Amino acid sequence: MRRLLIAGNWKMHKGVAETTSFLESLLAEDLPPAVDVVCCPPFASLPAAAMMLAGAEVGLGAQNVHWEASGAFTGEVAAPMLAELGVGWVIVGHSERRTLFGETDATAVARARAAQAAGLEVIYCVGETLAERDQGATFAVLERQTSGLAELDPRRLALAYEPVWAIGTGRNASPEQAEEAHAFLRVRLAGAFGGGAAEGLRILYGGSLKPANARQLLALPDVDGGLIGGASLDLRSFSDIIRAAAARAAGVDS
Ligand code: PEP
Known about the structure:
TIM Barrel
């Protein structure tokens, strides 16, 4: 069985002081060993977080990365710089990067390749908008967004299915919608890397995942964890989601 992964995308929240106190409290929790946990603070908080998480069971992720290793790219951060800090993960292709900052499928693949070349694990985000879903274009969009996956290293890759209409809206995908999309993505992974590799790869669900719906969504056969925005900012709700994942890993419906 795939190990469940629960990753918190803090977006542009929590400076150094808040990061430090949140991680202190998270590390004091009795976190279940059966679940991989990753926190992705903003860039400015990464050095403080890296110091706190060195040697800890909680992984550290960034929310973006540039595709070049160095150069004249004002305001950007390169993958080797993240690796040097102790960052182990990076989110790539998040819908906010796609809609607000011009991310395309090609740039997302380029970022992911650079991240993997520096030894980072990539959480590669895909997902349709509400208009695309309403037009019946969900699978066509997911197909397009995953067309460059074969260029990536499956040993350092997790996908995140994040329907854009569910992100930060409080409205999550239904279990049927989520499982259907995840199963489709598993087929896409098989096309890119072969069936055996696809069976081992994690596909996270993201979009208003919270304690109230975590058990239901995390119980789905092709859902291997979650990428969590809003609910990852609060220790109680993040920890409850981690515990829901642990219950699924243990085969317990607690
Ligand atoms: C996200 O931004 O990746 C996300 C899933 O946000 P939220 O959980 O707040 O919908």
